[in-house]
Amino acid sequence: MLPVNEAEAIILNEAQPMGVSDTEIVDLWEAVGRVVAVPVTSRLDFPHWDNSAMDGYAVRYADVSQCSAENPAILDIIEEIPAGYAPQMAIAPRQAARILTGSMMPSGADTVVMQENTRTEGSQVYILTAPSQLGAFVRRQGEYYQAGAPLLDRGTLLSAPEIAVLAAAQCVQVSVFSQVRVAIISTGSELVSPDRPLQPGQIVDSNQYALAALIEQAGGVPLMLGIVPDNPQAIREAIAEATQIADIILSSGGVSVGDYDYVDSVLADLGAKVHFHQVAIKPGKPLTFATFSQSMQPEGRSVLYFGLPGNPVSALVTAWRFVVPALKKRSGLATGWQPKWAIARSRQPLKSDGRRETYLWGQLIPTAQESEFELATGSHSSGNLINLARTNALAVLPVGETQVKLGERVKVLYF
Ligand SMILES: Nc1nc2c(c(=O)[nH]1)N[C@H]1C(S)=C(S)[C@@H](COP(=O)(O)OP(=O)(O)OC[C@H]3O[C@@H](n4cnc5c(N)ncnc54)[C@H](O)[C@@H]3O)O[C@H]1N2
Ligand code: MOO
Ligand SMILES: [Mg+2]
């Protein structure tokens, strides 16, 4: 059986990032969660002009550098500069302007004295403390960013901080990679959608919803293709349709050794390259990974096919472990697409048969010292999805390791 890290290497090698032909322009307010496709520069310096970092007085350093409370510098206030106002007058020797935080510096002035270090009398200001240096409390034009320099690189994920940067730079439209489209197919003649009454022997198709939610959270667009019965022709049609509309295809069920497990044979029929169909992972051993190369994909990329096992926990665990990193890499992210790992102390003893890399679900709990792992209570059967609720992490026991004792460290995959 293929070790997990080898399966991961095969998948990530096939998950080639989006390229120049997969880009679109979106408005800034629609750009959150998207990935920068064309590096962004701005024509504006940041700050846009010299401005004050304090409420106080704009002065000439030479006038105030020697002053003190006993020997104040006395300056004429010639103008008041509130925020949003362009100064009209130049500051000459022994003059100052009243200035407020963020306001534009007047010409002639080079330093700001904070209000707390001054006293005013009529139209004069007494500077009681010499500024620490020339330029004190002045935010210089271009100090943080100079027009034309790279602002955001290709592959940057746009979240609140990056959106703030783009807004400040007046980039109201941004070129981003298209979102990865992920077709989701549930195979199984026993399945009914959650809105249908359940007949004896039927099972609710929870995988379609679980996987769609996961794809959406990972930044992809789920295309819910519904339930397909265990019938080779129906499965073939569904997969063939999916290859025309999706970058990644997920099916669940029908990949084990049962009489009605048709996914692998249909993939072979459709000319897919099947890279593997079993991985030494628990849960999730019957996992098929294939690629379609004769597709509508630009730049020679292939459509990735994941035949996930039908058991609800197996489907979700294998999607977390293998599908999400592949989707994120495919989406064009330059960094941060890899699985996230932590080391945590286990609050319970953990057990495995040691034969497959074993994933136990629970919660990663950050503490001020060391993170801790709280195992979900109840059965860790791959059919029990009920205790998956409120979990955010999987503790991993490698092949050959049969236990982690209470309080020992364990490697954790977290989301
Ligand atoms: N003789 C063997 N039997 C099984 C093996 C094996 O190695 N030898 N592997 C077991 C393991 S491990 C798993 S996992 C399952 C995987 O089976 P399939 O991928 O073929 O899935 P199905 O047989 O179609 O279904 C399994 C189970 O999951 C339920 N299911 C399926 N789809 C959904 C869905 N969309 N939503 C909710 N639940 C779903 C299905 O009803 C079954 O209960 O095979 C073992 N057997
Ligand atoms: O490994 Mo299966 O995926 O346990 O239930
Ligand atoms: Mg089966």
From TrEMBL:
Signal peptide: none
Name this polypeptide is given: Molybdopterin molybdenumtransferase
Source species, domain of life: Bacteria
SUPFAM superfamilies assigned to the protein according to its UniProt record, in alphabetical order: MoeA C-terminal domain-like, MoeA N-terminal region -like, Molybdenum cofactor biosynthesis proteins
Pathway as given in its UniProt record: Cofactor biosynthesis; molybdopterin biosynthesis
Keyword Cell wall biogenesis/degradation: no
Biological processes per GO annotation: Mo-molybdopterin cofactor biosynthetic process
Gene3D superfamilies: MoaB/Mog-like domain, MoeA, C-terminal, domain IV, Molybdopterin biosynthesis moea protein, domain 2, Molybdopterin biosynthesis moea protein, domain 3
UniProt function note: Catalyzes the insertion of molybdate into adenylated molybdopterin with the concomitant release of AMP.
PROSITE patterns, per the entry: MOCF_BIOSYNTHESIS_2 (PS01079)
Keyword Zinc: no
Keywords linked to the UniProt accession: Magnesium, Metal-binding, Molybdenum, Molybdenum cofactor biosynthesis, Transferase
Positions in coiled-coil regions: none
Swiss-Prot/TrEMBL cofactor(s): Mg(2+)
Organism for this UniProt entry: Desertifilum tharense IPPAS B-1220
Residue ranges occupied by any MoaB/Mog domain in the UniProt entry: 183-329
Gene Ontology MF, one: metal ion binding
NCBIfam families membership: Glp_gephyrin, molyb_syn
